[in-house]
Write a structure and sequence with these properties.
248 residues, Rossmann fold, 2 domains, 5-stranded parallel β-sheet, 3-stranded antiparallel β-sheet, 8 helices, 10 strands, 17% strand, globular
Amino acid sequence: SQVTQGHHPGDTGLSCLEYLLAGNATVPQDLGVFLDSSRRMHPDICRFVSDAVYDGRLGSIPETGRHRVIRGHESTLVPGETGIVWVPVEHDGCSQSSDEECDAIVAIVEELLRRSVVDREGVERPMTAGDILIVAPFNVQVRCLRSRLDSRIRIGSVDRFQGQEAPVVIVSLCASTLEEAPRGASFLLSPNRLNVAVSRAEALAIVVGSPDLIDVRCRSVEEMRLVNLLCHLVQYAEDGLTQPPDAH
């Protein structure tokens, strides 16, 4: 990690990788090899991750297209079977935890556990608590969720779950506004952290957050870039819901 205090003239504050990438999202062909196939994500998730983070260079192997969470008659909170779902939850004054988001996630989990999941081999089975992974940026929210949900559901931070995967990933953003986020937009909406969280999902990535996070007056170009990523996610999710089932 880099020294965070002091003055770093020119490019001296960059990591070795950041310096070599020279502002590019992926490594140029003359500097290295980019692994361009995901063996985890359904194409409906991979397309967003690829466009938002990897310059459109990432694809999925064909087998991932079989991943899905079968929609039931009571599937109202999460109507989709694959892709990204945005669940806006109104709340005020929240920074590191939100009871309203906890309530929404508990209801979503209860609905999901009444559904079935299909793996990349095409095998369908009932969804279990072990098929759900929940990510929150702050430990206060992690503890709140753990106190209310089945202990078999994996709940933790992005850092804890790097390298793991599940049919469904639920992301809780917690803060009511960017001003109330303890470490600001650079932490809450970090492209790397959001990418790691969403890309843990095999079939469905569900992002729960305050709509005020995208209804914001940005104070810098960097903040605009970060908020734009969340806006891109929300628009992608909404566009996905307008597609007929056989379009996926």
